[in-house]
């Protein structure tokens, strides 16, 4: 699998990671800022939460890591949390924003 194919596979797996408070996946919510894959198929995901005080942050990050690890060929996985830049509802998928009336 090429790095781009692996990056796409990671993106698709992250669509399975649900923010249980909101009921939407982290990709749709715009919580995933960056995905990097190196030459050894190590994956690093930079993501955020809707708020720095999110009580589910640890569980969501753990779920993301576990789902990425199920992708064949992935070696090390690192999910890093950042709040720079802070998340805003503008990052939500435009179709979902419209459905939510945002």
Explain the overall architecture.
It is a single chain. Strands 3-4-5 form a three-stranded mixed β-sheet, with helices on one face. The mean pLDDT is 94. The chain is globular, with a radius of gyration of 14 Å. It is α+β, with helices and mostly antiparallel strands and 102 residues long. The chain starts with a helix and ends with a helix. β1 and β2 form a beta hairpin. It has a single domain, classed as 2-Layer Sandwich (GMP Synthetase, Chain A, domain 3). The protein contains three helices and five strands; from the N terminus they run αββββαβα.
Coarse structural class: alpha+beta
Q: Roughly how many Å is the radius of gyration?
A: 14 Å
What is the CA-CA span between the terminal residues? 38 Å
Integer tally of domains: 1
The number of strands is 5
The profile of the biggest β sheet is: 3 strands, mixed
Whole-number average pLDDT? 94
Highest CATH level, the class: Alpha Beta
The CATH homologous superfamily name equals Fe-S cluster assembly (FSCA)
Low-confidence stretches: none
Query: So, CATH architecture?
Result: 2-Layer Sandwich
Q: Can you give the helix content as a percent range?
A: 25-40%
CATH topology: GMP Synthetase, Chain A, domain 3
What letter string, H or E per element, gives the SSE order? HEEEEHEH
| Quaternary structure classification | single chain
What is the secondary structure topology, with strand pairs?
Elements: H1 3-14, E1 18-19, E2 24-25, E3 32-37, E4 43-47, H2 57-69, E5 77-81, H3 94-100
Parallel strand pairs: 4-5
Antiparallel strand pairs: 1-2, 3-4
């Amino acid at each position: 699998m090429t790095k781009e194919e692996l990056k796409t596979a990671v993106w698709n797996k992250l669509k399975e990671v649900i923010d249980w408070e909101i009921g939407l996946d982290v990709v749709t919510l715009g919580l995933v800022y960056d995905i990097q894959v190196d030459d050894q198929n190590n994956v690093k995901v930079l993501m955020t939460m809707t708020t720095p005080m999110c009580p589910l942050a640890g569980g969501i990050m753990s779920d993301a890591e576990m789902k990425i690890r199920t992708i064949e060929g992935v070696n090390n996985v690192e999910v890093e949390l950042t709040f720079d830049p802070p998340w805003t509802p503008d990052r939500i998928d435009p179709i979902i924003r419209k459905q939510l009336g945002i």
